[in-house]
Amino acid sequence: MTHETRRAFLVDLDNTLLDTDAYKAALGGVAAGLLGSAARFWTAYELARSVDPVVSLRGAIARLALPESESDRLWHALRAVPVAPFAFPQAAETLRGLSALGAAAIVTDGSDEDQRGKAERSGLLAAAGGRIFVQADKTAAWEEIRSALPADEWWVVDDKPRILASARAAMGGRCVTVQVAHGRYAGEAAGEGTDHRIAQIGQLIPLITRNL
Q1: What are the structural domains of the chain?
Q2: At 4, is the pLDDT very low, low, confident or very high (cuts 50, 70, 90)?
Q3: Per residue in 14-67, pLDDT tens?
Q4: Which of 15, 65, 113, 142 is close enough to 183 for a disulfide, judged by CB 3.0 to 4.6 Å?
Q5: Cβ(166)–Cβ(184) under 8 Å?
Q6: Are 121 and 82 within 8 A, CB to CB?
Q7: CA 127 to each of CA 17, 95, 100, 124, 166: distance values in angstroms, whole numbers, following the listed order
Q8: What is the largest CA-CA distance in the chain?
Q9: Residue 188 pLDDT > 90
Q10: What Cα–Cα distance (Å) separates residue 82 from each residue in 27, 96, 110?
């Protein structure tokens, strides 16, 4: 009896499945309407990033030191921004296609509330069969993720070469890495830890099927 290879597909959320830069611009527009300046909100966000274990929208709002009613109003306004329009074309279809080839999961780092919320409200979490790993720092969590989703081969998909390099270092030859050249890292050269590079997430399934 031949052994069928068990594959797991670990796919990043921000700027891989979701156009997070555009989503953040929409958040900035809402913040500007309520605070008078998007820069005021993003300054607080970066301050929260520098002092909190994990940056979050709630953390940024807390740094603004607004009256409670204004903080609540800003929080609900930011959460009301639709996320689904910012999913990259074919992102959900790709996740569903991966589930036919193995176990698919979204792997992201940041605030559990923010990241899980984006994945759910965009429809991407449902497309991944409800599987998501939210880590404070996923570069330090590959062993944990691999243990939670056992396979013979892991495909790691991300827009950032340094993340792919960390996965390769942790998982070695049983890891296949794919850079999706979206957003700010599109012009960054693929590193030694990158096996494949594609221009958009919709090219992932054809790439995988050619390499099985």
Answers
A1: 7-18+85-211 (3.40.50.1000), 21-79 (no CATH)
A2: low
A3: 999 999 999 999 999 999 999 999 999 999 999 999 998 899 999 999 999 999
A4: 15
A5: no
A6: yes
A7: 11, 6, 11, 5, 26
A8: 67
A9: no
A10: 10, 21, 19
**Cβ neighbours around 204 below 10 Å, total:** 24
* DSSP three-state, residue 187: coil
Q: Tell me how far CA of residue 111 lies from CA of 10, 28, 37, 179, in angstroms.
A: 18, 18, 24, 23
Counted residue by residue, the chain has a size of 212
pLDDT number for residue 183: 75
Q: d(Cα 32, Cα 122) in Å, to the nearest integer? A: 23
pLDDT digit string (tens) for 58-111? 999 999 999 999 999 999 999 999 999 999 999 999 999 999 999 999 999 999
Q: Say which residues have a Cβ less than 8 Å from residue 18's Cβ, sequence separation at least 6.
A: 83, 86, 87, 88, 91, 118, 122, 124
From CA 9, how far away is CA 103, in angstroms rounded? Answer: 6
The per-residue pLDDT for 193 is 84
State residue 3's pLDDT score: 52
